[in-house]
Amino acid sequence: MKSSSPWSLYSQLRGALAFAWLNGVIAAVRNPLWIAAYLTPPLTLLILFNILVAGEMKGYALAGGFVIILATNGLWLTGDAAYYRLYLKWQDMVAAAPVKPATYMFGLALSGLFFATPGMLVFVAVMPMQGLIPSNPLVFALACILIWSSSTSLGFIISNFFRELREVWPVISILTFALTIIPPVYYPITILPDALKLLALAIPTSAGSVLLHEALGLYSLSWSMRLLALIVLVVYSTVLFYWAVKKSRWRQP
């Protein structure tokens, strides 16, 4: 059967959904605490912002919490992918089937969304209460998809470098801090000097956040900064996805 046939495409999609169901829905039903785990960090920061900070910064706390759920959803894929490869040898079994690396990645990424979706819905429900309604839903959705895809690809790439599972979790914590706390995710990029603005936009979560902030009406971007943020997101998503597929430890029989 040729890989370009419609049936092959349907089979790959069905395989990805099967992975997502196994690693997402079934796992969430068996251990719903993982759903709460996705909500704990952003809700903690949101509560602190409400206690310590007033005014429009609460909007950044909501937007930042939404971004951190999207980003950690992809970064936590590092642990799943490493566990399946190192301990269960599931990736080797999948590679022996007519399944492409992109299918495997997409299935694992979708499984993470089952855990992250309840948390994202909580933030989406609270945003209108604070007057945060996307003025451009298309830009808002596109930024969300690109943040998710770039962090997912990054997580899958990193998972291939580990030999022991215990090495994974410190790296995930450090990456989460570096990608969601240091850059302008929980605060406006407008307070940074011009030189640091360009440096901040080189980070995918930061580029996505500025687009979300503008879409939610927190500030207005110049057309050049808006275009640069979008280009950075697209480039990161494309390059990281290509790298993840090409460099994955995929041993076909």
Would you mind describing this structure in some detail?
The chain is built from 11 helices and no strands. The protein has 253 residues and is mainly alpha-helical. The chain is globular. The two termini are 17 Å apart. The mean pLDDT is 80.
Quick take:
The model has no long low-confidence stretch (mean pLDDT 80). The protein has one domain (8-247). By secondary structure, it is mainly alpha-helical.
List the helices and strands and how they pair.
Blueprint: H1 6-30, H2 33-52, H3 57-75, H4 77-88, H5 90-95, H6 101-126, H7 137-159, H8 168-180, H9 194-201, H10 204-215, H11 223-247
Helix pairs in contact: 1-6, 2-3, 2-6, 3-6, 3-7, 3-8, 3-10, 4-7, 7-10, 7-11, 10-11
Question: Mean of residue pLDDT?
Answer: 80
Through-space gap between termini = 17 Å
Q: Secondary-structure element sequence? A: HHHHHHHHHHH
Number of domains: 1
Helix tally equals 11
Based on Cα principal axes, name the global outline: globular
User: Got a strand count?
Assistant: 0
**Largest sheet properties:** none
- Overall SS class: mainly alpha
What percent strand?
Answer: under 5%
The helicity comes to: over 70%
In the predicted model, the low-confidence regions spanning at least 5 consecutive residues are: none
